[in-house]
Amino acid sequence: MKKRYSLGSTILTCVFILVCLAWIFPIMQVLINSFKTNAAVSLNPFTLPDAESFAGFDNYTKGLTFGNYPFLKSAAYSLLITVVSVALILLFCSMSAWYIARVDSTFARIFYYLCLFSMIVPFQMVMFTLTFTADQLKLNTPYTIPIIYLGFGAGLAIFMFAGFIRNLPLEIEEAAAIDGCGPLRTYFRVVMPMLKPTMISVGILQTMWVWNDYLLPYLVLDITDYRTIPIHVQYLKGSYGSVDLGASMAVIMLSIIPIIIVYLLCQKHIIKGVVAGAVKG
Fold first, then answer.
1. Dist CA 78 CA 213 (whole Å)
2. 213-230: pLDDT as tens digits
3. Which CATH architecture has domain 60-277?
């Protein structure tokens, strides 16, 4: 049995190593090509840079200063949208999930199933109506688009929060109520601290989604005034539509480094929160 178990573990380890390499390979290609000249990226994208094709940090400099729209401005808008959107999702979705998990009513069940249904509706089905609605309600700026992200991110967040809260002992909240805590104090003083694992998991998943999202900002925002990083990458074009691939790779690398760092720092909490939120539901 031990030999079979050891052999099975070895096979699984090899398989997962191959899967990891398959996921890491595109990122390494972007990193390598970000240090190569534009011609070298076009002709030999899978080779390491040599003395002739090595561009140093010229691509990064070009990517930061290309055109009349600076990269740092796009990064600032992406950061603003991501931080505000994730904060709204964590606060309002956790409170909604707490209500759903603790209130046994027809309205709570219908609201929960509607949130789950929103997870399976393709974005393409609502994007044209969404664009019109966003324009009418003035949600087409980086300061208001987080409200739209709140709506789209609520399904997964409420599902994870509700599953976790159902596993929390109700006696703790009853004790807080006996001590004189109202609903808001009970939530912020008792429930929210216990939601930390799921908070981190939902926060990381939503951060990766909002930070890398291209379609929603492109449809809703006025891209002449407001550009996020994915939109900025699209406009790294010269005359006659020519694309500087080296500069594009450099900007893409700058955009994925922050999210990779955040993910690596919090990855252990992601699995913990997902498992805790999926035990019951």
1. 9
2. 998 999 999 888 888 988
3. Orthogonal Bundle (1.10)
- Beta-strand ranges (E) seen in 71-199 are none
Q: Hey, what amino acid is at 86?
A: V
Under 8 Å CB-to-CB from 37, ≥6 apart: which residues?
Answer: 53, 54, 55, 246
Token digits of residue 24: 């890491």
Full-model pTM: 0.83
| 210, pLDDT greater than 90 | yes
Closest CA to 235 of 74, 110, 13, 40: 74
pLDDT in tens, 87-108: 999 999 999 999 999 888 899 9
Please give the Cα distance from 246 to 23 (Å, whole number). 21
What is the Cα–Cα distance from 101 to 215, expressed in whole angstroms?
33
Q: 271: exposed, middle or buried (C-beta count within 10 Å: 0-12, 13-18, 19+)? A: exposed
- Record the tokens describing residue 63, joined without a space: 């990517």
pLDDT score of 280: 44
Where are the domains positioned within the chain? 60-277
Contact between residue 219 and residue 131 where contact means Cβ atoms under 8 Å apart: yes
Q: Which tokens go with 166?
A: 């159902």
